[in-house]
Amino acid sequence: MSTRETGSQAETFAAGVLQEKGMKLLTRNYYTPYGEVDLIVCDEKYIAFVEVKARRVGSMVRPAQAVDRRKQKRITQSAICYLMENPAELQPRFDVFEIVMEKGKNFSVQSYQYIINAYEVTNYESI
Q1: SS3 label, residue 108
Q2: DSSP class of residue 66?
Q3: Closest CA to 40 of 30, 31, 53, 55
Q4: Sheet holding 109-119, edge to edge
Q5: Which helix (H) or strand (E) holds 58?
Q6: Which of 99, 119, 93, 107 lies closest to 17 in space, CA to CA?
Q7: How many CB atoms lie within 10 A of CB 51?
Q8: DSSP 118
Q9: Beta partners for 93?
Q10: In terms of pLDDT, which residue wins out, 123 or 13?
């Protein structure tokens, strides 16, 4: 299974979990010149820009650790593009959905964690 296929299955899994928790899926794989946002979901109060990260059991780092400052900046810039195209009165936030997969060739989830407010945008000048 390619990395792209694994990523797509991870995003499908994450979208399903979030919808079961009552979130509405607004879009998936939102592309901008700055990069991509895996999932954009909302509830009554928030619009969440969600990065989905999957790693196999035994990986050296947790999946969420792959969302470094550079990636956060790209997601933030993409979120601004989305909100300019789709104005919303909801409070934006930045979440990470991390998935730990079983070893092997198939996509098999061992565990997952949805991290709400995984990071905050604190320096708007650097955007």
Answers
A1: coil
A2: G
A3: 30
A4: 24-32, 35-42, 46-56, 91-101, 109-119
A5: none
A6: 99
A7: 26
A8: E
A9: 48
A10: 13
The residue whose two tokens read 């400052």 is 69
Tokens read off for 112 = 């997952």
Q: List phi, psi (to 5°) of 93.
A: -150, 165
- First CA to last CA across the chain, in angstroms? 35
Phi, psi angle pair for 6, to nearest 5°: -60, -45
- Tell me phi and psi for residue 64, to 5 degrees: -65, -25
The whole-angstrom separation of Cα 97 and Cα 114 is: 4
Characterize 3-33 residue by residue with b for buried, 16 or more Cβ atoms within 10 angstroms of its Cβ, and e for exposed.
Answer: eeebbbbbbebbbeebeeeebeebebebebe
C-alpha 40 chain-centroid distance: 8
Q: For residues 4 and 43, give the distance between their C-alpha atoms in angstroms, rounded to a whole number.
A: 28
> Rg of the Cα trace of the chain?
14
43-59 pLDDT, tens per residue? 999 999 999 999 888 88
* One-letter amino acid of 56: R
pLDDT at 106: 82
